[in-house]
Amino acid sequence: MLNPFRRVSVYQLRQRWKAGLLLFALVIAAATLWYTETLASNLRRREAREVARWAMAVEHIVQSSPDVDLTLATQIIEDNESIPLLLVDDQGRVVSSRNVAWGDSTAADTTYWTDLMKAYAPPIELELAPGLSQFIYQYESTTLGQLRVYPRVLLGVMALFLSLSYFGFHRARRAEEDQVWTGMARETAHQLGTPLSALYGWLTVLEDEAAAQPNLIPLLAEVRKDLERLQTVADRFSKIGSDQPGEVADLAPLVEHSVGYLQKRLPKGVELRYDVAATLPQVRYQPVLLGWVLENLIRNAVDALPDQKGRIEVRAHRVGDQVVVDVADNGKGMTAKVRRSVFRPGFTTKKRGWGLGLSLARRIAVQGHGGHLEVLHSAPGQGTTFRLALPLP
What we know:
By secondary structure, the protein is an alpha+beta fold. Helix content is 55%, strand content 18%. A hairpin with a 2-residue loop joins strand 8 (310-319) and strand 9. The two termini are 57 Å apart.
């Protein structure tokens, strides 16, 4: 049975809000266009009735005797100030026009307008005399055309305004989140500094006291390794958001150190190996932060292995004007949906975890080193390959 109170992640909630707002916007746009088209249809039927009266007035004027009062018929003809009309004889010549800039128009102009108007509405035939007919062609009025175009222009302007507003607020929020995250990371490093210094001092005292107890020396050596590891973590937090570009150096020692460190700490069923090109060019990087990225990618690969048994390979080589590091595993792989979301903050497929590892790794690669981190290849049952790309200096 599904738990109705299952916790929804911030990422999922945000996606639902976006989908809901987008659906609401589409409903508003559809309702606006539907209402406009309804008004336009009503106006078109009204114009059709006016054209029919105009045709009757013309027919009445032509067929009336000289002593008939034509004031009303003339007034009906003159009142049409917006509907384009053409009066064409049975030879296809324009006899008169209304609300159409005609003048010295050519036969091609006549054909163009009559075809355009015929597609809009069937012409009205006037039987002026036995065997003599003329035809009235009509087109939509300026008001009707504006009524059709205006809501589309308005919706386009609103969509552009909302897109620019969303982009601006998104960038501002992202910059604020970056500042908060950077501040928290540096404050964490600062808070860790004091107890680490004290622990180093106490460890030095214990090492001096352990000179008379050789069995304690190996234990204290392991404690020192753990303290150095904590110091490395503190250094990583202190360098997040740093503007220091790093130094130009060979990437091979970093790859070897990261792989060597994790080889001793991974489950026995995991085979971790690396391959570094012999002619690998130097790149500019910060060892503390980039080492964090590599370790994160390797640990993520370990989590993708079924029952933590499988193979992980780290390959470093040159591709064009970049040095790339590929971390490949033969694990479960990812679906296309997971691939699109794997770098989003808060997204995780694990039962435990905050979903910040890959997001932070991409931040370090892009903002800290001017590079890129992407999923090069992944498919269910075919494993995954992450690619870290760094530009040549």
